[in-house]
Design brief:
It is a single chain. By secondary structure, the protein is an alpha/beta fold. The protein folds into two domains: about 5-130 and about 320-335, Rossmann fold (3-Layer(aba) Sandwich), CATH 3.40.50.720; about 130-315, Dihydrodipicolinate Reductase, domain 2. Helix content is about 30%, strand content about 25%. It is built from eight helices and 14 strands. The strands form three sheets. It has a six-stranded parallel beta sheet, sandwiched between helices. It starts with a strand and ends with a helix.
């Protein structure tokens, strides 16, 4: 016996990826509904070898459905997630709306699976920010071994993190570079993204950090350990899919690069590709379509007593969004609902 599953926002990049991953991982589905806004009503989307027509999110009755994967943004989630939860359907939400709510668990299954029991307080589970998700997967086994005190991270985030509009803007601007008569000024981003990098994701806060940077701090503390100090610089780069991160950690106990490499190789969700030679590391283009979080360039930081540097890459539409949501659904099914 399987589950009745809803994917809300099924025509967007993340929603389509949720449908793909549910099929790829053979999630036990008895019935599935693809929901979208009224303007996308009856749009066709793929689910394995099936084609689904989207239904109207606004009029959909969630009663009798088990799990809803939401990829519709915070404003719409504010309206529809409580309706689904009240109807008895567990919501796994990809927006930022509930991430910092103390009554809603924020989960990365490889890191804090036991937090799943907290779903019952609101019948809602939050999916973390894409940049946070891949980072904490890599941090968790190192934290368990040596206790991380401080994290310094610089991100190199792809335009797909800003949705279809971000992808289109990079594509159009790149073409326009070679056709000067077809100028494409920035609309989605604050400056030209083609052949450029932009140290600005989300809005600026009074502290001088951006909200994306604040999210990485707050979410890492909630998921991994509130005592860990985190500072982040988040940068948008002209890459279509795949977020990269340069991570520096300081630990309480000594942990050399060789042991860290061995620990990460044995850890769930991680693939270590770390050869000290040309090409002996993973770049964003190589991680697209993969489930893993890749770690490379593991080395000791000689400026502090217990420090390590490493490079972390993942498909942000997968582990950073859709895959993590499906993994939460699997965790929910295995530990709580237990129908499959």
């Amino acid at each position: 016996m399987g589950y009745k599953v809803v994917v809300a926002g099924a025509t967007g990049n993340v929603g389509r990826e949720m449908l793909n991953i549910l099929a790829e991982r053979e999630f036990p589905v008895d019935d599935i509904a693809a929901l979208a806004s009224r303007k996308s009503l009856n749009t066709e989307v793929s689910f394995g070898d099936r084609t689904l027509k989207t239904k109207d999110l606004d009029t959909f009755d969630f009663a009798g459905w088990d799990i809803a994967l939401f990829a519709i943004g915070s404003e719409a989630t504010k309206t529809y997630a409580p309706k689904a939860a009240k109807a008895g359907c567990v919501v796994i939400d990809n927006s930022s709306l509930y991430r910092y709510d103390p009554d809603v668990p924020l989960i990365v299954p490889e890191v804090n699976p036991d937090a799943i029991t907290g779903y019952a307080r609101k019948n809602i589970i939050a999916n973390p920010n894409c940049s946070t998700a891949q980072m904490v997967v890599a941090l968790k086994p190192l934290h368990d071994r040596a206790t991380i005190k401080r994290v310094v991270v610089s991100t190199y985030q792809s335009v797909s993190g800003a949705g279809k509009a971000g992808i289109d803007e990079l594509w159009d601007q790149t073409k326009s570079i070679y056709n000067p008569t077809d100028e494409k000024p920035p609309v989605k981003f604050t400056k030209q993204i083609a052949f450029n990098v932009i140290p600005h994701i989300d809005v600026f806060l009074d502290s001088g950090e951006t909200k994306e940077e604040w999210k990485m701090v707050a979410e890492t503390k909630k998921i991994l350990d509130p005592k860990v100090k985190v500072t982040a610089t988040c940068v948008r780069v002209p890459v279509f899919v795949g977020h990269s991160e340069s991570i520096n950690i300081e630990t309480e106990d000594h942990l050399d690069a060789d042991e860290a490499r061995d620990i990460l190789r044995e850890s769930p969700g991680i693939m270590v590709v770390d050869k000290r030679e040309d090409g002996g590391y993973v770049t964003p283009i190589e991680c697209v379509g993969d489930f893993a979080t890749f770690v490379s360039r593991i080395r000791e930081d000689s400026t502090i007593d217990n420090g390590l540097n490493f490079w972390c890459v993942s498909d942000n539409l997968r582990k950073g969004a859709a895959l993590n949501a499906v993994q939460i659904a699997e965790l929910l099914g295995n530990r709580v609902l237990q129908k499959g």
